[in-house]
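Hey all, quick one. A colleague (J.T.) asked me to put the magnesium ion job into the tracker so the inputs and the structure tokens live in one place instead of scattered across chat threads. No bug as far as I know, just bookkeeping. Sequence used:
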Amino acid sequence: MPDANSASGQSDTIAAIATPAGAGGLGVVRLSGPRAAAIARQLLPGCELHPWRLRQAWWREAGDGLRDQVLVAYFPAPRSYTAEDVVEISAHGAPVVLRRLLAACLERGARLAEAGEFTRRAFLNGRMDLVQAEAVRDLIAAQTVAQARNAARQMEGSLSRLVQPQKQELKELIARLEAGIDFADDDVSPPAAESIAAPLAAMRPRLERLAGSYREGRWLAQGALLAIIGRPNAGKSSLFNALLQRERALVSPLPGTTRDVITETLELAGVPVTLADTAGLRREGESLEVLGMAKSREMMAEADLVLAVFDLSQPLEHDDYELAARVRELPRAFAAANKCDLPAAWKAEELGLAAPAVSARTGEGLEALTASLGRRLRPDGEEDQLWITHQHQAQHLAAAAAALERAEAGLGLAVPHEALLVDLYAGLHELDALTGQTTVEDILGLIFSTFCIGK
Ligand SMILES: Nc1nc2c(ncn2[C@@H]2O[C@H](COP(=O)(O)OP(=O)(O)O)[C@@H](O)[C@H]2O)c(=O)[nH]1
Ligand SMILES: [Mg+2]
């Protein structure tokens, strides 16, 4: 491996507090760069740094200043997180101690790290690709086990490994086409169309599937909005409370009680879901209620999933049929027939919609309802299903698939191989951009600026 410090042109040494703000049992100050070890030795005189070993030491400020007993870990380049010399000093986690310790590092020549700069260096030094670097951030930000699991898989390089064979295959196709062109006058015959078409046709669906996983992957990463819609008094607020398992929204027998949209978050199938209780939809109402209804319609358009609630104990009305018609059009809508603890006033056929019976009062049918919502939010994939969680990753994958599709179409029309190559190179370029091989500096800046300091 080349000298890590010069490989990425990083000649300065960065430092940051790597643990969260606030008091804790321990706090870590992290250093990375050519002077990391020298700075640590200056701070902790007499402490011998041993590679990949913990050393105990006393840190003392000059004169009558602060002191603390610390543990020092030394990771020499290139076998460290950043591939540079890294030193981690664990002190007691008092914010004042950590701030002064960091200040002492800065006085000795380190520079305060920018957000994500440690991981950026790891990426620039080839320790990880861009997908893995982004997964580090996702793992740190994970709020549910499912989010953390997906991030950890990507951090291990699962996505990169999935894409690698396609890249290799593309490169081989390109090489064969190039050879056919370059040596056309010699004995090399151009590859047969079929020998190009078959691998392309095999590759494309895999890329499309991965790109398509962003639909649910986005929910996994950023959460989903689930709006509860229906006629006044259908039991929307009651269902909202039942799903949350607490009395959050006001419930009353008076139609039109809920005027504003109330939101709360819960976890469904590992996805953070914002549940929105809305004002009832009906044709007329007093002015405040009409405003509320406008908001409900907005919510319905905005929401990732819509739960339409119908009152099973009351005869269906015009508003119900209207809502049912909209639900049939919306692929992301679910229906529920509430109040199944009371005698039913209609049958599902009348609504023209599958609406499982539930009761917000007794809890009947709620488990099945949450299960089907959960399946929609995170369909059961294969055991090692990976979800694409960033839009730009999905875009690169989709663009790569589109380029291959163009090449396939070109093959069908027997276009010159030079033209095919343009598409194949475009596809390869997109896959390179996904893993960061061809990413331009300003995009890197955008990605790493969303990290926390110290990572
Ligand atoms: N029997 C029965 N009553 C319910 C059920 N869900 C809601 N209600 C009642 O229906 C009325 C309207 O409920 P609410 O949740 O405020 O409806 P919203 O206007 O759609 O938000 C209240 O009196 C609730 O107690 C249910 O499952 N069974
Ligand atoms: Mg309500």
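Adding what we noticed when we looked at it: The radius of gyration is 29 Å. The chain has three domains: 4-127, 141-213+387-436, 222-377.
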